[in-house]
Every structure is written in structure tokens, then in C-alpha cells.
Amino acid sequence: MKDDPKGLGKLIAGKLRAQLQAEGPDCPDVEALAAYVDQTLTRGERESLQSHLALCARCQEQVAELARLSEAEEPARVLVLGPAPGRRIAWFRWAWAAPALVALVVAGLWYTGEFRPLLKQQEPTALQAPPAPEPSEAPEELKYAQAPASPSGRKEVAKVQPEKKAKQEMVSALAPSAPKPSLAYTGRAGGVAGAGITTENLAAPAPGVIGTPSERARLVAPAPPPARDEAVPATHEDRLAARAEVPPPTAEAAPQATREKAGQSATAVVGGTASKERETLGFLTRGVAAKKAIVSSPAGHWRVGRHGLIQKADASGNWVTQASGVDADLFDITFATPSVGWAVGQTGTLLRTIDGGRTWNKAPIPTRADLILVTASGELTAQVVTRNGQALATTDGGKSWNTSSHD
Amino acid sequence: MASLTFDEFFVQHRTRLEILYRASGAARWSVSLEDFARVAWQGILRAATAEPGQIPRLLGTLRIEDLGLALGCAQGNERAWDTFCSEYRGVLYEAARAIVHEEAQARELADSLLTELYGVDSSEAVRSSRFTYFHGRSSLKTWLRAVLYQKFVNEYRRQSRLVPLPDNPDDTSTTPGSVSEKDDRRYDACLSEAVEDCLRNLPPAEKLLLSYYYVQQLTLKQIGRLSGEHEATVSRHLEALRKKLRKRIEGYLRNVKRLSAYEIDRCLDFDSRGVTVELDRALKPE
Questions:
Q1: Does any CB of chain A come closer than 8 Å to the CB of residue B232?
Q2: By CB atoms within 10 Å of each CB, which of A61, A233, A234, B243 scores lowest?
Q3: Any chain A CB within 8 A of the CB of B147?
Q4: How many angstroms separate the CA of residue A324 from the nearest CA in chain B?
Q5: Taking a contact as any Cβ pair under 8 Å apart, which residues of chain B between 102 and 141 contact chain A?
């Protein structure tokens, strides 16, 4: 502080300490202190707690420590190349496979070198060495590898990767070139790559088919927790980034567990595009955490984001942007049937489609609050939840909305 | 106002609770709607009793995904526990290291809490998880840190940050060596009394802000984290508060202690006073 004599500061500190009680008679529980730090208390609760904190040394010290811990925890939003502490067990379990993986890679390289002239005779076009896996193709695997520190880092990376992934890389090395990452998913006719690379190699195991009209829990029901031999992202931000970076599974299963936290942005790269698009796919909602990076529905895989972003995954696994006609941030999307769907967002933004998402029309709703959650059980019935907890429902396709009883 | 019973709460807000329940994904941990609703009700009961009209908003502030996971763990769902460990074990270890600053002790602290969270009660063979105390009012991460720190304070009796000032047995001397020293002691006493009186009459929020800065020695950014403000805003608030405090101190010295303008300046001018300010006497608790 400017012009703050150290002597006066020390005097103030001493006097404040003297006025503090070691422990107040009505100390709040731990959850209340945590909620205070998270800014989720009501105004009345907050004022009451502040009055207590001003006089209670014990609670004041605890809150101060939480503030220090929260600040220390703020990481940069980057992929973590390395196993989380909790994942040491999974890494260690695969350590025995390192020699086998090395042998497989060497054999693959040898095979390629041996038959390269023969392959050139069969394929008129020049063959290129398959590109190294890009983050957009297999970010999850990168997470579990040590950061390569040498030119041979890629081999070192292979040592620690699950056997499944190493096998996939070997197949890639054997296959004719696939210049576009998307081809890795569709494969090439007659090419080994097409046979070997599937989204199963890239995505976690997923639940079964969901063919009934959308109910959010089932649609976005996550896969069972990944098996021990499959790594789990080190941090929640990594998992968000990984899920967003991986093109949606073309299989019939929903993507992995949706455990996005409220208030966090999902950083995403779409097929290796620039970081600007990464930002546009972030979520800024708080409160009811009904935000999913990828929504599976009868109409396919969808996701929404900032500035009116609506995207659908095509058969190749690429995200295709649909025109929403709005600039507001969108928070949720759902489809009741293959043709009828809803999207919601900031300041009462409500969009509806009746042609499977090709066109979206703004629908009226009697609220200007942020709409953070939408569910639909039929072509004409839907429910939305606002940021302040209000629930509205329609049974006539959005022509009229009713608040839930006792609002 | 009569408190709301759970049955009334469940009936009145069932639709909203169902939406929240579905959005939380609690079903994957085999948590029933009723269990979910009951815990949510417990979490907002106190606030809802005071402000029944705020129930929808209170429900909207719940961290429902965290709540679903914690409920699943509390009920002994192994998949929930696996998910919790994969996501939060690292958080606990990091927090423990930040608190304890010693690796072995930090790991022991974190593992001990994990055991309590898992729920082990060998005496009655009944699982009693510490997760039962989590109701979704805060994020699970912050709650875990708070519980961890509280456990540390309770179990390890960490040395308090309130380091007492050293006693000065010679402080009771009443005969100053010179006239200037005598004046300085008088100024110190007046200033000490003025500061104490002004701090006592401050509103709780302002007193808390000063405590965060001067007693807990938090940075502006950390204070901003608690107040929900940018650190620049916190800095402005502190500056304004400092000026307000100084003005009140001056007023007290002028009106109560009847000091002249020159004497007030001498009181507040620490640097010009050659004698070491004996703060220990001024700072002794009453």
C-alpha cells in the first residue's frame, strides 16, 4: 500500500490480533467456509459469515489458507505430459510391456524398409511416412507419455504407452500414407490403416446404444470408469481438453464420463485448428453443472460453445459448424428425436430445430436469464433451467412456457 | 418461520430436483433421487429456513456433479470411489504438501483423510464416510482442502501464525532517559489507543479486509479470491480504507486525546522519531 508506514501497519496488525478470539462459539462448518471461498453463499449467509470471520482467529486462518491453496493450484491450461500421481500404478503396470513394445516398433520399421520398393510398385502415388500422431488425434495417449526430451523421444513415448496404442502406431507405420488426420478414422480401401485404426483405439470404452428419446442422464451417461490399463487424464482440464480434441466416436456409443465442472472453460482443439477456435469452444457457466462438451443424441453428436457456436460431428469425425443465427454463448443442446432439437444459452437464448440441426430458429421464452440446461422428452415437450434455478417447461413446442409449480 | 420438512421440500420442488438429479449423473453411482434430494435439502436447509423464496436459487448454486460423486462414495459405490481417487487424490496430495511442506507428513495426512473419506469404522462394522458432511454448497475440491487443513490443525497442532511479540521485562521502566523519549512514549500510547478504538468500531467487512492483509498477510490476489474481486479493486479498497482509518485516528487524537496538529503529526510520523517504537506494550492484549 502506498504511504503506509511499516510501524502503523504493525500496529494495526497487533491490534486486530488482540481483538480476535481464538475460536468463536458459533463457528460454521467446514462446508460453509468452503462455500464462502467458492462464492456460493447467499448474501445473507455471506454477511453473517464475514461478521464471524472478523472476530474468529481459527476460521479466519482457515479461510486464508484456502485462499493460498486456491491460488497455488491455478495451473496453466496445457496438456500435462506425464502421469498424474494417481496414475503411477497404471504406468507401472505397463512397464513390463516396454521391451515388447520396442520389439514391435523395430519390427514394424524393419518391415516397412524391407518391402518399401514393392509397395512403391503397387501404389502409383508417392507414399509418405505416416505423420506423427497429432494431439487432435490421440491426445489421451500423449497425456500418459513422458515428455520426450531427445530426438528418440518418440520411441521413449512408445515405451510407456498402452500396448493397444503402440499397436495402432505400428499399423500406422505400415500403412500407406494418410495425409489427412481424418482419414485415420475412415481408413483407405485396401489399406492396413483402415483396418487397424478405429475410434475405439482413441476413445475410452463407451456405453451401449442410446436410441430412445433424450433424457440427459442416459444420453450423456459416461462410460464406465476406464480400465486400469487405460490412462485417465491427469487433471480435469486435461480431460476436458482431451475429450474436445478427440473427434467424436463414430461408433454408436456416447463419449466418456461427463464430469465437467461448473465455471471452467473447456479448452478444445478441433482437428488441430488454431487456439482461437479453442477459446470459442469454452464454457463459462457456473451453478448447475449441466454443461457437456459433447452431447450424443438421436441426431448424432453435437456440441455448443461461445458466440452461438453449434457443431455436429460428421461421419468422418470432423466437427461441422451449423449456423445458429445468434451471437450469444450457448450452454446446452439436446435432441428429442433425430429432427427436433433445442439449444440454450445466454440471456434467454433459446433455439429450436426441426430439421435435424440444419437450421436453427430462435424461439421465444418468458425470461432473460441465462438458460444453462435443456432437456426434451418429445417433439413438443422440453424443459429448461435458468442460472438462478428457475425451471420452465413447454408441451407445445415452445409456443408457451410454464414455470414449475411453487415457483 | 417454520422450517421446511423434507417431504414438503421434495414435493414442492420435485421437478427441479429431477432435472438436477439427471444433470448430476448421480444415477451412475446408484444414487437414488430421494437420497440426492435429501442431501441437497440438508445443504440448503439453513439458508432456506431464513429465506424460503430463495430455494430455487439455492438449488441452482449446488455443485450437483460433485454432490452426486460424493454421495456415491458415501454409499460405498466402488466406481464412484475409483473416479474420486483418479480425480482428487492428486489434489489432496498437492494441498497436503502446500500445508505441511514435508513430503512424508503430507502424504500421511492425505492418506489419513482418504481413509476417513472412504469410511472405515471397525468398531461397529458400519461404514461412515466423511463424505456425509458434504452437501454440494461448495466445490468438492475446496471442501476437501478445507477438511484437510482442519484435520491438520486438529491433529498436528501446527504452530499458530499468530506469533506473539517477545516480552520486554524492561518495558515497565517509567523514567525515560530524555524529554523526547518521554514524548515518544506518550505518542505511542495515544496512537495505540486511537488505533484500537477505530478498529473496534469498523464494520465487520472492513475489519476483515484489514485482517486478511495485515494479520493473515494475504496478497491482494488472494484477498480478491475471497471477495470475488480483482486484485486492483482490492488494492483500491485497501487504500480507501487506510485513508479512512487514518482520518478517524487523527480525529480521535484531536478530539479525545486533545493533541495539537503538531503532536498528531508526530504521532503518525514513525520514521522521524529516533527512539524505537516500543510496540510490544501497545500491542499487548487487554
A1: no
A2: B243
A3: yes
A4: 24
A5: 133-135, 137-139, 141
Q: Is A3 helix (H, G, I), strand (E, B) or coil?
A: coil
Q: Tell me the H-state helices in chain B.
A: 6-12, 14-24, 33-50, 55-61, 64-74, 78-100, 103-118, 140-156, 179-200, 204-210, 220-227, 231-255, 261-268, 279-283
Looking at the structure, tell me whether residues A123 and A250 fall in a common domain: no
Number of domains observed in the structure of chain A: 3
Q: Which residue of chain B has the CA closest to A290?
A: B23
> Based on the number of CB atoms within 10 Å of its own CB, is A182 exposed (0-12), middle (13-18) or buried (19 or more)?
middle
Least CB–CB distance from A11: residue in B99, B282, B286:
B282
Instruction: Report the C-alpha gap between B233 and B93 in whole angstroms.
Output: 33
pLDDT at A75: 56
Domain around A355: 216-403
From A45, A73, A101, the end of a domain falls on A73
Indicate whether A1 belongs to any domain: no
Q: Which of A41, A55, A86 is facing B90, going by the closest CB pair? A: A86
Quick one: B192 exposed, middle or buried, by C-beta within 10 A (0-12, 13-18, 19+)?
buried
A328 bridge partner residues = none
Is B150 in Cβ contact with A12 (below 8 Å)? Answer: no
The reply to whether A69 and A89 lie within a common domain is: no
| pLDDT, one tens digit for every residue, chain B (286 residues) | 456 789 989 999 999 999 999 999 999 999 999 999 999 999 998 888 877 888 898 999 999 999 999 999 999 999 999 999 999 999 999 999 999 888 998 999 999 999 999 986 555 556 688 999 999 999 999 999 999 999 998 886 545 555 555 544 444 444 445 567 777 888 888 999 999 999 999 999 999 999 999 999 999 999 999 998 999 999 999 999 999 999 999 999 999 999 999 888 888 876 555 433 444 444 444 4
Q: Write down which residue in A171, A201, A231 finishes a domain.
A: A201
Across the interface, do B12 and A71 touch by the CB < 8 Å criterion? no
Is the same domain home to A272 and A323?
A: yes
Query: Does A383 map to a domain?
Result: yes
pLDDT tens digits, one per residue of A89-140: 555 566 677 787 888 888 877 767 655 566 555 545 444 444 444 444 444 4
In B, which residues are within 8 Å of A217 by CB distance?
21-23, 25, 27-28
CA-nearest residue to A17 within chain B is B215
Q: What is the least distance, in Å, from the CA of A167 to any CA of chain B?
A: 26
Residue A206 in any domain: the answer is no
Least CA distance to A53: which residue of chain B?
B208
Nearest to A303 by CA among A265, A337, A330: A330
The CA-based angle B95-B97-B98, given to 5 degrees, is 65
Residue B27 in contact with partner chain A when CB distance is under 8 A: yes
Please give, rounded to a whole number of angstroms, the shortest distance from the CA of A19 to a CA of chain B. Answer: 8
Determine which of B7, B14, B15 to mutate to test the interface with A (most A C-beta atoms within 10 Å).
Answer: B15
User: Are residues A396 and A250 located together in one domain of the fold?
Assistant: yes
| A61, A112: one domain | no
A139 in Cβ contact with A245 (< 8 Å): yes
Which amino acid is located at B54 in the chain? Q
Contact B86 A14 (CB under 8 A): no
Q: Which of A11, A257, A383 sits opposite B279 (nearest CB)?
A: A11
Whether residues A312 and A381 share a domain: the answer is yes
> Does residue A207 sit within a domain?
no
At residue A287, what are phi and psi to the nearest 5 degrees? 75, -130
Let me know whether A261 and A364 are in one domain. yes
Q: Which of B136, B193, B274 is nearest to A262 (CA)?
A: B136
- A386 and A355 share one domain: yes
The Cα of A114 is separated from the nearest Cα of chain B by a number of Å equal to 44
